[in-house]
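Quarterly update from the structural biology core.
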Amino acid sequence: MRVIVSAGGTGGHIFPALAVINKIKENEPNSEILYIGTTDRMESTIIPDLKIKYIGIEMKGLNRKNVLKNIEVLSSLNKGIKKCKSIIKEFNPDIVLGIGGYITFPVITAASSLGYKTFIHEQNSIPGLSNKILKNKATVIGVSLEESLKYFDKNKTFFTGNPRSEEAVNAKPVLKSKYGLSKNKKTVLIVMGSLGSLTINNIMKDILPKFKDKEYEVLFVTGKGYFEDYKNLNLPKNVKIVEFLNDMLGVMKSIDLIVSRAGASTISEITALELPSILIPSPYVTHNHQYKNAKVLSDSGASILIEEKNLNDKTLIKEIDKILNNDKIYDKMKKANAKLSIKNSATKIYEIIRKTIDGDKNE
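Predicted structure, tokenized:
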């Protein structure tokens, strides 16, 4: 199989793309993969470091605050489409995949115009701008959440789940002792992504000392750049702090409750692991995607939603106590997550890609 993969901007797009690449390689080890990303975002270093063939395209996202700057965006888009056509012709793939981020727009547009088969994946509950346009160009479409199906052509759209879910299920649990935690106590993981959040960190400095005397333990991930801010903070023994987790999925398999943002990949990992959660959606993302993602889980009873503006020691600790101290509530949340999860998403996507290449698009 010869495949071009495009995804970029954030780990929420890059890591699902890698999950698909890994599944393709698992099933067809001799596959040739070319990854097209940006020249200046996360994927431009992550992907080459993994020894995956990579080509960067100069591309900018729409500026929603200064419309005049979008003249430059349109110029880079036209150049990007032209370059992508040249790359695609030379590589001559069996299929081109767009797994999220604005970089997918020129890649899928170019592939479609040249007559190549294409697959796009929507991770959020409501489609982003790129996929709203690309849905008419794509040969086949996958969505992470069932409620997203209504935004796409039912004849070519599949409820696949998010490919990160399968990696979460297959992750090896991490011993809690690695982070100074007791194996006999319940653990709450609080994490706001690899980069962390300035707003949340400022709030957590006030909240963390108030976990004193709780029966459970707390592992707080500050995010890169914030760890030093906690050096002089007097913390109780049941609170541990780290800057970053390289084994996030393994840690998630070993804990009892997670407090996190509500990005699409995070949602898929939480539901796949049937992990009760308290979600604090980032209010700074386009179209308030994270709030809508979190609402899907909270409405089903799988999670508690706390808006960032309402986050304080009383709201957070009250909800943590309620979940961890009531087995009925806890079990109900686990069962609700199980109903939302797809545990073999990467496999589903691989099978759809294989059938699409073989011409069996609508099964």
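The CA atoms of residues 81 and 106 lie 5 Å apart.
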